[in-house]
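For practice. Any example?
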Amino acid sequence: QSIDNIISSDSGSTDNSSTAGSSIAAREPAQRSDAFPNGEALMSMKSVSSPVLVLDISDDDSYAAPHIKNAVLLPWQSFLDGNGALKTEEEMARVLGEAGVSQNDSVVLYGSPESSGEVQLVFWALSYLGVAEVKVLDGSLEDWKAAGLPVESSENKRPAVEFAVQYKPAARSELLADYEYVKSGQAQILDVRPFAEFGKGRIPGSVALDPSNLIKGDRIKDAETLKTIFERLDKDKPIVVYSDDYKRSALVWYALKLMGYNASIYTWEDWKAH
């Protein structure tokens, strides 16, 4: 396969009642969000405060272990059906309402240390459904514990709310591409499936990108590294990211968002169906 169609880079429970202070600040890295063109999508651990709703998007078993104090469970699998496809807007809205999440909440998301794309998938879903402010925690639960920040093992629940989709789905269509748009040639197309699948068949004109190149440990890579990885992309032209796995697509979509690109996600299954 021609290198022109590949984008890649190897660059680089006990309650603890202490709160963020000088000792934690000394152990917490500098606020990386300032380095990204769209850094408001990322929240440093020392910036988490009581008005923010912390959502743990891991599964029930992970949540049962010590988790961030006051975090509410919202499993990432809740947004997909049994076949791994996205649920409808109404079904996803019901998931949020049952978890006590409203459109006006300020939310920060984190997952289990081994997660890869799950947090970004939930970030995408909440953004698509119109939650006012959504961020990803810049670090894992292990980083949180290492910083001496408070954890607990008890379950936290919020009263259910009515999460009504107050807009027509087309209003957020820039986040979810459809077949006609992809076929139109208006956007750059990124294939983020495993490279072996890319070699077997792909959307015409698409280029390959390995999502694993975008993360280091439990964190998205720094802004300079992402800039290098994405340097062959035209920042003035929209991007469609597609895969047969929403987690892979959402991870790349989120990294593009951080870097100020206009991106949406799409599915290989929909392309094949047409």
User: Anything to note?
Assistant: Residues 14 and 152 are 6 Å apart (CA to CA).
